[in-house]
């Protein structure tokens, strides 16, 4: 392998989706390995696009096939503690029907429960305004409303 390419930095890459019910509430999932709630999604694997990773993670985590995702934002997060820097992609997964909601099946190894909550509750449950995902959610809602994707750093413009 080219020495220059080997010397390039590595970043973590994640992808998640904002998915809603007909009441406008956000779908959150409770990972078994974290102390806070999250949105469906996960780590982008080697040679996988963020969009494809999000589709795969939604299928694995909650059992839904969602091939139509709309890009909302990318959020750069610097290295903190033992976590290296990352790019977090967010997509819009649309509004689920009652039939789709009733067919949600959690990946029990990784998730203990799911729920639909208000945007304000989603911000609190995902860690409050101290966590990037929590800061990202309202900006993604704005991106859905305006049809304009956003670039963020640490959840901020």
Structural overview:
- The chain is α/β, with parallel strands linked by helices and about 160 residues long.
- It is built from 5 helices and 7 strands.
- It has one domain (about 10-155): Nucleoside Triphosphate Pyrophosphohydrolase (Alpha-Beta Complex), CATH 3.90.79.
- Strand 4 (about 70-75) and strand 5 form a beta hairpin.
- Helix 4 (about 120-125) runs antiparallel to helix 5.
- The chain is globular, with a radius of gyration of 16 Å.
Write the layout of secondary structure elements.
Layout: H1 3-7, E1 12-20, E2 26-31, E3 41-43, H2 50-62, E4 70-77, E5 86-95, H3 98-102, E6 111-117, H4 119-125, H5 132-146, E7 150-153
Parallel strand pairs: 1-5, 4-7
Antiparallel strand pairs: 1-3, 2-6, 4-5
């Amino acid at each position: 392998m080219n020495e220059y390419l080997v010397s390039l930095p590595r970043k973590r890459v994640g992808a998640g989706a904002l998915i809603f019910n007909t009441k406008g509430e956000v779908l959150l999932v409770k990972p078994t390995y974290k102390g806070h709630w999250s949105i469906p999604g996960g780590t982008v694997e080697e040679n996988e696009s963020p969009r494809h990773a999000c589709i795969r993670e939604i299928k694995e985590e909650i059992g839904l096939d969602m091939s139509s995702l709309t890009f909302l934002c990318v959020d750069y997060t610097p290295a903190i503690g033992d976590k290296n820097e990352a790019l977090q992609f967010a997509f819009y997964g649309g509004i689920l029907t009652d039939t789709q909601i009733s067919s949600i099946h959690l990946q029990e190894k990784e998730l203990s429960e799911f729920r639909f909550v208000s945007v304000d509750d989603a911000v609190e449950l995902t860690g409050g305004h101290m966590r990037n995902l929590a800061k990202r959610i309202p900006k993604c809602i704005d991106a859905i409303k305006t049809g304009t994707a956003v670039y963020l750093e640490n959840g901020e413009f």
